[in-house]
Design goal:
single chain; 207 residues; mainly alpha; 2 domains; 78% helix
Length: 207
């Protein structure tokens, strides 16, 4: 009789433990909240403007998912760590979204400045080309330089089109390429006997 009572007590204790721990459910709500925050960061173009931050948030989300799967495989799952990771993932995702917004604005400002600088340098180069000595031996070279300048102007126009489609990194790269080429052309003009006029300050961007 005593053994029966001890066995019953043990069964009741095990049952109570199962009820206390086995009734834990996966943190579906926390997972949904964290995933929504991560999706919002991606919608803010974090993949383009906050890559490092997005990678960190995604890594924590992956850890949370792995922890949930690990706990699901146990008799007595405990999702405390998974919930902690999901809260961390949400926090990092929110921060990533803000970083993406700021990064996009900076990229826009950088591209706008690059286009303005390229235009000013191209204008300066065009003025310098007019000072180059003209003669029988230089006519073809000057015509080629003038053609190159038209190409640089076209590149800047393309950069401005990219701004309209919010390809700010591409616009900056295109404008900076045109600016570098114009600067190289200035060196050729000087070597040919031309002079580089003082460059006027770049016009402020249109708001």
């Amino acid at each position: 009789m005593r053994k029966y009572g001890m066995l019953l007590t043990l069964i009741l204790a095990v049952t109570a433990m199962v009820l206390m721990t086995g009734c834990q459910k996966p943190p579906d709500q926390e997972m949904q909240t964290a995933q929504q925050a991560l999706d919002a960061a991606k919608a803010a173009e974090a993949e383009k403007y906050a890559q490092a931050e997005l990678s960190g948030a995604q890594s924590v989300m992956d850890q949370a998912r792995q922890e949930i799967e690990t706990q699901k495989a146990k008799w007595f799952p405990n999702y405390d760590k998974a919930k902690e990771l999901l809260n961390q993932a949400k926090t990092q995702s929110d921060q990533t979204k803000e970083a993406a917004i700021q990064g996009k604005e900076k990229a826009k400002q950088d591209a706008t400045a690059a286009i303005a600088d390229a235009k000013a340098l191209i204008d300066q180069t065009e003025a310098a080309l007019k000072t180059a000595p003209k003669g029988k031996g230089t006519k073809a070279d000057l015509e080629l330089m003038a053609k190159d300048l038209e190409g640089y102007k076209a590149a800047v126009a393309e950069a401005e089109t990219m701004m309209g489609s919010e390809d700010f990194h591409g616009a900056a790269a295109k404008a900076n390429g045109a600016k570098d080429s114009a600067k190289s052309l200035q060196d050729q003009i000087v070597a040919a006997g031309g002079k580089i006029p003082e460059m006027a300050p770049a016009a402020p961007p249109v708001q």
